[in-house]
Design brief:
CATH architecture of the largest domain: 2-Layer Sandwich
Largest sheet: 5 strands, mixed
Number of helices: 11
Helix content: 40-55%
Strand content: 5-15%
Shape: globular
Distance between the termini: 36 Å
Length: 257
């Protein structure tokens, strides 16, 4: 993978040149999930704050910035959310933004990043179940269309279901499939990772591995419903903690006029 300096410069170039301040940049996707290939692209995710004065302009505020480019032959897929949008997605229980926030691969950080991570702890509620349940169902349907022959789709499917179950049980976002498998102990994981490491778009013949993936996926899919019922997470964020989101947003706006 490229070094952090190169990735950080890429993010900064697309944000700070437009007067936006970077809160954090992390790596998502297969690298943070623990199964990159030599030819994997890099999913770079960011949160930024728009200059407050720009909120008063006639033009609508751009809340999402998306860029694709290449550095040293490696494709970079960059997506950045403005802080207000990011906060609202957190309150909705969007697992994707929580994974970006708590990614183990941090490229750029700041005092706001640390504050946002602290703020996010109490925002992980039972609402997040709906994200992982829906995403897991979509991935299962995608895998079935491929007859469980696509290694990458299989890994994304199992990783999604495992992360969803784990967060309901612990309140922690763990997206690394090898770490998750210490609990789930799925025999197919090591085989799939080894195949994926060799080639990004690796296919496998329908057979023992495909049958094993389908069997494990169906079993995992049944767990979140029961885990949701027994989870100690709150059903929703408290009004007190929600107000802390408002306070954080106001503070960051005032400090970035």
């Amino acid at each position: 993978m490229l070094n952090f300096s190169e990735l950080g410069n890429f993010a900064g170039r697309h944000l700070e040149d437009e007067g936006k301040k970077l809160i954090f940049t992390t790596v998502s996707g297969s690298h943070s999930y623990g199964f990159p290939s030599e030819d994997s692209d890099i999913d770079l995710r960011a949160c930024y704050v728009e200059k407050t004065v720009n909120l008063f302009r006639l033009e609508n505020l751009k809340e999402t910035i998306e860029k694709k480019d290449f550095i040293k032959g490696i494709e970079i897929d960059f997506v950045g959310f403005e802080i207000k949008k990011f906060l609202l997605l957190m309150l909705k229980g969007n697992g994707t933004v929580f994974e970006q926030l708590y990614s183990p691969i941090v490229v750029v950080t700041s005092k706001y990043h640390a504050q946002l991570k602290a703020l996010g702890r109490n925002a992980i509620t039972k609402k997040i179940y709906h994200h992982y349940s829906g995403f897991g169902n979509n991935k299962l349907n995608e895998a079935r269309k491929e007859n469980f022959s696509d290694v990458k789709v299989n890994l994304y499917l199992l990783r999604t279901l495992m992360t969803g179950i784990a967060v309901l049980e612990t309140g922690e976002i763990n997206q690394n499939i090898a770490e998750l498998n210490r609990k789930f102990k799925l025999h197919v994981i090591d085989t799939l990772i080894a195949l994926k490491n060799k080639e990004e778009k690796r296919k496998i013949n329908a057979g023992k591995i495909s049958v094993g993936v389908e069997k494990e996926a169906v079993k995992l899919q049944e767990i979140p419903d029961e885990t949701y019922k027994s989870s100690n997470l709150l059903s929703d964020i408290s009004e007190e903690d929600k107000e802390k989101f408002n306070e954080f947003l106001i503070k960051i706006r005032v400090e970035n006029l």
